[in-house]
Specification:
Strand order of the largest sheet: 4-3-5-6-7
Shape: elongated
Largest sheet: 5 strands, antiparallel
Strand content: 15-25%
Structural class: alpha+beta
Distance between the termini: 47 Å
Amino acid sequence: MSILSSLLRDVAALFFPPRCPVCGRGRVIDAAADVDPGRLRLYGPEHADKAELFSKCPKCGLQIGISFEVVKAEGEEKITTDDPEEAVKELAMQKAQEVAGRVDADVVIGADTVVAVDGEIMGKPKDPEDAVRMIHRIQGRDHEVLTGVAVILKKGEVETTINFAETTRVHVFPMTEEEIQSYVASKEPMDKAGAYGIQGLFAAYVSGIEGDYNNVVGLPVGRLYQEVKAIADVDLRTL
């Protein structure tokens, strides 16, 4: 690498630091005085390269000062209702209960996000063709993004359960067939509910939202904090 190329790279990193690989929004910074990296532990090899960056991102779940461990739920998820709001609450509770049954923790938070169009629940696409179908359904109109959250708090012999769903309405610009195919080819949609990520390339097609942006990303952190504080009188930032 030439001296000029190296210099340009360093200047770019200074003024345009990389985006957080977890939330896709926050710019990774060199230090975060309000976050102790030693308190952050991410389970699973898929998180091994993200722990340091995650601890330095001011816009992730850590943005409100909550330290946590990520534990993947292993149980089979089942939906017993066609109602999108009840479905995400059900899925979130299943995740929280499964993890709480095998992890020694005072607080377990489960969350699940779906997109709903005219009552149709859309999770993650099965394949690229399914992703194209989903984007055709949401382009040029509005839809709902629902995140179900379940919290299980244990204090001695007392267990408190909180279960709610947050809804955000998202408006999408009309998209051409070329734009849809190009977006799906980026592979960004394949692990996301509704086949898109508002924090990624799809931002070019979002005309506006009504509600909590963090909810569309995957976790309504503001409501989570407020619900736990109101119902259980617990400040998640102090745990």
